[in-house]
Design a protein that fits this description.
The protein is of the alpha/beta class. It contains eight helices and five strands, in the order H-E-H-E-H-H-E-H-E-H-H-E-H. Helix 2 packs across helix 8 and helix 4 packs parallel to helix 5. It starts with 14 loop residues before the first helix and ends with a helix.
């Protein structure tokens, strides 16, 4: 069998049908930022707030995904691009199922984030820049990664030996060094409400 022998099979139940059943809209909420900026913490706080309101959502976390779906990928530029491409495809499936896909990935390259944005409709991708100064991220360093990177034990580490491209036009910028987790999560929920996403 060759690639040209594969055809797309339309689903009997549409994204619209699933949204109606769930009584909500669906989109990708894409948290991006340096290691230690608070992406996973914030993603889970937002997930919990949506859950409390009876809404369907799921967190796709960078480390968790690398334990399974992306287990074989390293941290070269090519592997990072493939990591984000796969996550984008999975997140799109969640959007099609009528849920919020909440992702927490460094995703350091603008082009990769833009490719994911292009996978869904224009109002279905919400880029959230979890902004936190590098020195604060290093102070937090919950996994001890910056220390290892500074010692040369981790090559190509974002923010130290590999670049992080700040989002050019994110829907939201959340400064986690200025607000509590609760306040940051409320900013995201406020945006979703403002845009009538639930």
């Amino acid at each position: 069998m060759a690639i040209q022998d594969i055809t797309w099979h339309e689903a009997a139940v549409s994204k619209h049908d699933r949204r109606c059943l769930n009584k909500q809209t669906s989109s990708i909420i894409w948290f991006t930022g340096l290691s230690g900026s608070g992406k996973s913490t914030l993603a889970n706080a937002v997930d919990w707030k949506l859950h409390e309101q009876g809404l369907r959502s799921y967190v796709l976390d960078g480390d968790n995904i690398r334990h399974g779906l992306n287990k074989g990928l390293g941290f070269s530029v090519e592997d990072r691009q493939e990591n984000i491409r796969r996550i984008g495809e999975v997140a799109k499936l969640f959007v099609d199922s009528g849920q919020f896909a909440i992702t927490a990935f460094i995703s350091p390259f603008q082009a990769d984030r833009d490719r994911v944005r292009e996978m869904v409709e224009s109002d279905e991708f919400i880029e959230v820049y979890v902004k936190c100064p590098l020195d604060e991220c290093e102070t937090r360093d919950p996994k001890g990664l910056y220390e290892k990177a500074r010692k040369g034990e981790i090559p190509e580490f974002t923010g130290v030996s590999s670049p992080y491209e700040e989002p050019e036009a994110p829907e939201l910028v959340i400064e986690t060094n200025c607000y509590s987790v609760e306040e940051c999560a409320d900013q995201v929920i406020g945006y979703l409400k403002e845009k009538n996403l639930f």
